[in-house]
Amino acid sequence: MTTATTGLDDERVGAVLDEIARTAERNDPDVMKRAYATAADWPQPPTAQEAAELCAQAALPVHPQVGTFLYQLIRSLRPALVVEFGTSFGASTIYAAAALRDNGGGRIIGSELHPGKADRARSHLERAGLAGYAEIRTGDAREQLATLPGPVDLLLLDGWKELYLPVLKLLEPALRTGGLVVSDNLPMLPPEFTDHVRAAGNGYLSQQLPLGDGIEFSVRLQQEA
After folding, report:
1. Can you tell me the distance from the alpha carbon of 105 to that of 153, in angstroms, rounded to the nearest whole number?
2. Residue among 222, 220, 184 nearest 205 (CA)
3. What are the tens digits of pLDDT across the range 130-176?
4. If 0-12 CB within 10 Å is exposed, 13-18 middle and 19+ buried, where does residue 198 land?
5. Does Transferase appear among the keywords (predicted)?
6. Has domain 1-225 been given CATH number 3.40.50.150?
7. What is the 3-state secondary structure (H, E, C) of the chain?
8. 184 near 66, Cβ under 8 Å?
9. Burial tier of 152 (Cβ tally within 10 Å: 0-12, 13-18, 19+)
10. 50 — phi, psi (to 5°)?
């Protein structure tokens, strides 16, 4: 008996993920070095919009360990709706959409501030054969994710770190009891965010996981009234 090639063994999925990884390896160090050097001369830290422009050519893909973890979570949870803050070139979206396809249904709604990156993410999803499971909204996530088609089963936070907490608070009314929050780039997370998900009484059970450069993994224990 033969088994259809799906998920992370799908040649189209693997080819696009490999391409994004090669782009990141080739471009990201120089792009980020220039971005930090430019912003260092500014009197104030860059805004999310300014940072998006500085990093427009950086792929910034999710680490394969984190991407595989997302795939595993989604295959197990079988969510109807996954939401992503910070799509970039769409690597994490591809991991999620592949799992949704292999589950037989579900949708991921991503948000990306930079229009060029959003277009590249859509192109990558199309080439991976996963466009039917994903929607990428372009613009400020606090506006683009304000309206959703149903309860959020899993939330991935992987965008501008200072917006993690505002985006989470925006989505808390839609985050169902038992919903999951995966927050990438643990060393860069603002303390007000980690304090919020770790503090007793805020409705989460949260811990650090050593995947990639570290993630904060949180379970919503109770939906906001």
Report:
1. 13
2. 220
3. 999 999 999 999 999 999 999 999 999 999 999 999 999 999 999 99
4. middle
5. yes
6. yes
7. CCCCCCHHHCHHHHHHHHHHHHHHHHHHHHHHHHHHHHHHCCCCCCCHHHHHHHCCCCCCCCCHHHHHHHHHHHHHHCCCEEEEECCCCCHHHHHHHHHHHHHCCCEEEEEECCHHHHHHHHHHHHHCCCHHHEEEEECCHHHHCCCCCCCEEEEEECCCHHHHHHHHHHHHHHEEEEEEEEEECHHHCCHHHHHHHHCCCCCEEEEEECCCCCEEEEEECCCCC
8. yes
9. buried
10. -65, -40
Contact 152, 224 (CB under 8 A): no
- Whether residue 217 is predicted with pLDDT greater than 90 in this model: the reply is yes
Q: How distant is the alpha carbon of residue 104 from its chain centre? A: 21
pLDDT in tens, 79-128: 999 999 999 999 999 999 999 999 999 999 999 999 999 999 999 999 99
Structure-block tokens of residue 46: 């860059």
Contacts of residues 23-29 at CB distance under 8 Å and 24 or more positions apart, as own/partner, are 23/59, 23/89, 24/58, 24/59, 24/60, 24/61, 27/57, 27/58, 27/59, 28/58, 28/59, 28/60
Classify residue 116 by burial, with Cβ atoms within 10 Å: 0-12, 13-18, 19+: middle
Q: Which two tokens stand for residue 143?
A: 């506006």
